[in-house]
Automatic annotation (TrEMBL):
Entry keywords, A to Z: Iron, Metal-binding
GO function term, MF aspect, one: metal ion binding
UniProt protein name: Pirin family protein
Binding-site residues for Fe cation, renumbered to this chain: H81, H83, H125, E127
Keyword DNA-binding set for record: no
Residues annotated as domain Pirin N-terminal: 42-147
Organism: Nocardioides immobilis
């Protein structure tokens, strides 16, 4: 897995161990992501499908894109499409992805890079593999997370953040059994590079076989764990969790994830995405590419899009 790694985890700063009185987060439920296709036909797992939006708040959805090894001519992306009222966070683990939008944002991300697009008041964008990847084929694997914006930020100007893998905060557990990449937010006082409107944290952790991660987590944030690959357990009661499954956790000061001692040869370690944020607690009207507070605001978004108010396509 080419996402940024460290050969010797003992050189990294260590996460603190749970203190006296710190409460572990219980596991409320474990769900399995259904599989489907997005855009022009690239495979996805709908990581949070079936989870109540009130438990996801401030998140809307998350897709695991791939993992797929494209043959020449197979790689696909999306066509130009609109968004308003939220943010998209695209984290590429394997492969390469290009982004371009009508507000001037864009670039190429690969192997541990992240593009953070705040749609805000509205824009058009396109995501696709570069032409050389389409021609030659190759690995592609990543996630895309949709983060809601509060009512007073839904009409903010769009913006784009290009977050390189080398900017991510890297941490380890006290026994050096897990690598923790903090992409956004704060974990145990360590700040990730992503700037967010909605208070939240986003982490990619790799856990060695037989190792355990006790991850400090802001008590006022919710917490969700999604398994990218491998097998393990979540919570102190050891609920089994495997590739393509999500766990919804309850309140507490830290969360616990353990990797099984034996893993598949294709996935020798347990890789998880951990995400959580402070709930917005506002009504949601979500239709397709628009996430607003009311049905009338969604209809207004469609009208603005049809009248060309989301910007012009770049040449």
């Amino acid at each position: 897995m080419p996402a940024i790694t460290v050969d010797d985890l003992t050189v990294l700063e260590r996460l603190k161990e749970p203190g006296l009185g710190d409460q572990p987060r219980p596991v409320w439920e474990v769900v399995t992501a259904p599989q489907g296709y997005e855009g022009e036909g690239f495979p996805v797992r709908r990581a949070f499908a079936g989870i109540d939006l009130r438990q996801l708040d401030p998140f809307i959805m998350m897709d695991q894109m791939g993992e797929v090894d494209y043959a020449p001519g197979e790689a696909k992306g999306t066509s130009w499409h609109p968004h308003r009222g939220f943010e998209t966070v695209t984290y590429i683990i394997d492969g390469v992805f290009d982004h371009q939008d009508s507000h001037g944002g864009g670039g190429t991300i690969t192997n541990g890079d992240t593009q953070w697009m705040t749609a805000g008041s509205g824009l058009l964008h396109i995501e696709a593999p570069p032409e050389w990847l389409v021609e030659k084929g190759g690995l592609f694997h990543g996630i895309q997370l949709w983060v809601n914006l509060p009512r007073d930020a839904k009409k903010n100007d769009p913006r784009y953040q290009d977050i390189r893998s080398g900017q991510v905060a890297l941490l380890s557990t006290p026994d050096a059994g897990a690598l923790v990449r903090v992409i956004a937010g704060s974990v145990d006082g360590h700040e990730g590079p992503g700037s967010t409107f909605t208070p939240m944290s986003l982490v990619h952790a790799t856990i060695e076989p037989g190792a355990r991660l006790d991850l400090p987590w802001a008590p006022d944030y919710n917490a969700l764990v999604y398994v990218l690959n491998g097998r393990g357990t979540v919570g102190l009661d050891g609920r089994p969790i495997a590739m393509g499954q999500s766990a919804v956790l309850g309140a507490g000061d830290y969360l616990t994830i353990s990797a099984d001692g034996s893993q598949e040869s294709r996935s020798p370690k347990l890789d998880v995405i951990v995400v959580g944020g402070r709930p917005i607690n506002e009504p949601i009207a979500w239709v397709g590419p628009f996430v607003m507070n009311t049905k009338s605001e969604v209809m207004e978004a469609y009208t603005d899009f049809q009248k060309g108010r989301f910007g012009q396509l770049p040449a």
